[in-house]
Amino acid sequence: MKVTTDACILGAWAPIPVSARRALDIGTGTGLLALMLAQRNPDLAIDAIEFDDDACAQAGDNFQSGAWQSRIRLIKGDARNYQPSEAYDLIIVNPPFFSNSLLGSSERKNIARHTLTLSGQELASVIFRLLSEHGQACVLFPVPEYREFSVAAAEAGLQEIQRLEIRHNAQSKAGRVVAVFTHGVQGQAEVQQLVIKDEAGTYTSRFRELLGPFYLYL
Question: Band of the pLDDT at 117, cuts 50, 70, 90?
Fold first, then answer.
């Protein structure tokens, strides 16, 4: 799968708790999110788990080519069966999308884009189990899947505390949501908005500010 703007927004915006020392990227794919977290926080040790052989090989190449290879550990495996020695202060996930849409002809893309291997209920359970007591999990979804996952997260014992609603332009509705969950904190989630392009079709100042450290050209 190609690197998407949505995934870059997730990696750039995901709140990193001040006390965070251990992070987990579930379904790392190309390794993009793990690399972005490593760039953002020099004190963060990051585990990146991936079950697909080809994706795991690509992530490994990208980690070895980067400046933060000493702080990123690649794990070949299924997050549902993963048993770490310690819980994580931060979990970041760009999960399968479009659980209710039609399948395409590519099996690998279907697995990457559809909830064929990890359901919302399973993901919520995995996050609850692997997240430390005061840790935070940051997950990217299309709006319909976000609504479904929010129910699963609440049933698993997770509480949404923050949300970024992403709109392509000021006139469009939010198409993607980045949501932050933690263990059992009660209260209203803080909601932010990010508009990618202005009326002239150019990137907004907020988007350039957020993605500037990661894009060569904006």
Answer: low
pTM above 0.85, yes or no: yes
Residue 92: both structure tokens together: 């970041």
Taking the C-alpha atoms of residue 158 and residue 128, their distance in angstroms, rounded to an integer, is 7
CATH number 3.60.20.10 given to 5-156: no
How confident is the model over 1-15, as pLDDT tens digits?
568 899 999 999 999
- Whose tokens are 């795991």? That residue is 56
Residue 134: other Cβ atoms inside 10 A: 13
175 in helix, strand or coil? coil
In eight-state DSSP terms, residue 69 is G
Q: How far apart are CA 23 and CA 89, in angstroms?
A: 6
Please state the domain extents for the chain: 5-156
C-beta of residue 158 within 8 angstroms of C-beta of residue 182:
yes
| Distance between CA atoms of residues 134 and 87, nearest Å | 10
What is the spatial distance between Cα 121 and Cα 136, in angstroms, rounded to a whole number?
A: 18
- Please enumerate in sequence order all residues whose Cβ is within 8 A of that of 205, keeping only pairs 6 or more positions apart, or say none: none
